């Protein structure tokens, strides 16, 4: 009976150690440099676009599949949008999304990784300086960037995201976003 209990204890300890090496969970936050690409005319009136600076925050997980390959799913609150101007008006359109990127991470060195993957985003809020609520409620996009592990637990990332679907029902625009992030893996 003692041998069975000892074997069970060793199995549980080994399994916990292996799982801790294969799965890490953490949090990240950072700055977005967001803009919108495409035709900037609303109701036939042409506007110039400028980007906005906003933020993102959320949780990440890294699932190690091979020595130099991991999958990193994330759950982020991310704000994107643009500022629109013409000779008469100026308004800011800020869209708050629940974004779910799933990044493939290819480690080029022990601490530097190339990251690419798709992203699904669901509109949670729309703030703008005019009375049009015309944002699409779902957006699909792709991301690419680099990650750097500063220590075993602290990391930084730089990423470019491009929306592949329209961000607005009334204008031919898509979200474009550069994200700079810092995070901590537990």
From TrEMBL:
Signal peptide, first to last residue: 1-20
Record keywords, A-Z: Signal
Residue span, Outer membrane protein beta-barrel domain: 19-166
UniProt xrefs under Pfam families: OMP_b-brl_2
Domain of life of the organism encoding this protein: Bacteria
InterPro entries: Beta-barrel_OMP_2, OMP/PagP_B-barrel
Name of the protein: PorT family protein
Native organism taxonomy: Bacteria, Pseudomonadati, Bacteroidota, Flavobacteriia, Flavobacteriales
